[in-house]
Amino acid sequence: MGWSRKDLVSMQELEAAEILMLVDTAASLQEIAGREIKKVPALRGKTIVNLFYESSTRTRTSFEIAGKWLSADVINFSASGSSTAKGESFIDTAKNIAAMSPDVVVVRHSSAGAAEILARALPCSVVNAGDGAHEHPTQALLDLLTIREHKGHFEGLSVAIVGDIAHSRVARSNIHGMRKLGMTVTVAGPPTLIPPFVQELGVKVSYRLEDAIRDVDVIMMLRLQQERMTAGLIPSVREYSRYWGLTLDKLVAHARPDVLIMHPGPVNRGVELSPEVADGPYSVILDQVAKGVAVRMGVLFLLAGSKGGGEA
Amino acid sequence: MSLLIRNGRVVDPAASVDGVQDVLVAGDRIERLGRELPAPDGATVVDAAGKVVCPGFIDIHVHLREPGFEYKETVASGTRAAAAGGFTAVCCMANTHPVNDNRSITDYIRARAAMDGAVRVYPIGAVTRGLGGKELAELAELAEAGCVAFSDDGKCVMNAALYRRAMEYTLPFGAPVISHAEDDHLADGGAMHEGVVSTELGMPGVPAAAEDVMVARDILLAELTGAHLHIAHLSTAGAVRLVREAKARGVHVTAEVTPHHLLLTDEAVRAFDANTKMNPPLRSRRDAEALLEGLLDGTIDCIATDHAPHAQSEKEGEFDLAAFGIVGLETAVGLLLDRLVRPGILPLPTLVARLSRDPARLLGLPGGSLAPGAPADLTILDPAAEWTVDPARFESRSRNTPFGGWRLTGRPWKTIVGGRIAWP
Hints:
A: Rossmann fold, Rossmann fold, four-stranded parallel beta sheet, B: 18 strands
């Protein structure tokens, strides 16, 4: 089968075969990073707009590099210092950008659903680079690619996702993707950071880090946002890190020796991950970042390059 | 000047009437009901065979937006929407700009209504100055100026002591306080019902408890003060249970429900269409079922639309940043006929009662019956008319509805206000 969607908005809407196609395409493009001349003509003459309403260094850079390695023209549009600061609405801004005929708009926004609203409003392809606490599909895809490279397969693997599940688009996208590929998922964190009825998404819930990480193949630690304290969701960062921070002691005592430690970044060292774990042998965090470029190349290629475009 | 409405099925729950009869109107009053009444000289004769003739429908919860938000709606456009939707009277909420918290605004709204209102308009005054929740509005003067109830609708009076005083102070006026029951802290930042769907969408949720907590508080305050408490737009199973239990204990509490809370659930939010965003939010299926049960057993006294017009620009962007509320006047009757009456879920006389007799009694408004001498406000329904909801054809200035494109059977046919045909 070929790729048939105009947009990549969520993992929830994808079939397992589509997820595998995205992962396989990304895997095949990884070698470009090792070339002396990192440039293929696949998206020559195509225009990609990075429309970022939230600050993001790594995701925006990753999309920008991916587009450039594929020879597309990449334009970055960030909300600060732009027309949005003058009060232009999201839809107005989007329509103005669309009038300039881009082939792909990559959008990052603090509102859940922003990417889907944009995808409906624009004739070009839209890629969700994170919409509120809803989804972040390219992050899930790069996580999946990383897991497959290290574990060789998906079916039957078990994963613990630990931390602020309630506010995490990374958790939601990964839950959908992992479940579709036959993995079992446990989410863990203090009850105030676990969203209601999350079991309905097909995951197990644990309120104890030591239980959650026992016997799993992958531990994915999420970033704790400082503002969760002022919202009364946790008493203090100190207490959070004491009960939910992953230290080497806990890891050695409770996790398997071949476990993978992942984190979508940026890491709060000493909060959710102790430095020796973040930078230790179990950690594949920088590998995730490298895979991110390949995944975004794959996504951009399938959305913009497969219809009469060049060969990668 | 007289009007004879012939051969319609007359449904007047206030008089336990349900059968084919003629209705004779003289001037602005009902003259009498009977079979094969002779037409007086010069009478306008309306052949209503196959139609249903009801006391004029009354919507006790609308936002006419004037003064201050005339780009969304005006008294003229909102009352035209009401007439087109089969309503002969509406009660308009106080969250205008300036707020209807003093006599001059009430007078202004009533003057606009007298000048270009298509139906009767009864203003509702604010409970607190500027809807600020800090100090009482001039409630006695608002009552004297014609406000039929008091509400900070859109906001909840979080200060229980102040709300208690509002209930006490308004006791002599015979006008209820209408509670927008929502705990600000529990609801903070929420854009939809907190449940499975909000978890999937990653959307901040408003738990049902935000409503239940406040309904419970307000019932206790009504019990303390002996005031008539009316709860706006009930949306949760818990609130229905609390109202039912309070009524059984003899507390003077009444409640309303909107068509959208009866017919839609939070599943509708999945497409991130802000026309499914309102306050209170669309709840779970279990809540919608409990609301219907409450409507059937009389726990819920009446149906009101919470008609809340907004411009397209306020509804087309990000869901969590979009305005709360949908228009309802022009879809309510058709939706209820098609989705509740036609499948046999809600008997037609019950629907008519909840739209005419019961809201009239609740607020002590004229109308709600076709007894001789009653105001000649009538809603005539065509139960067989097939139509498709087309927001582009609304009389309302706004089009923010989740029901666009719905195919319905049954709709208002003619709306008569004070003996004159107000629609079409």
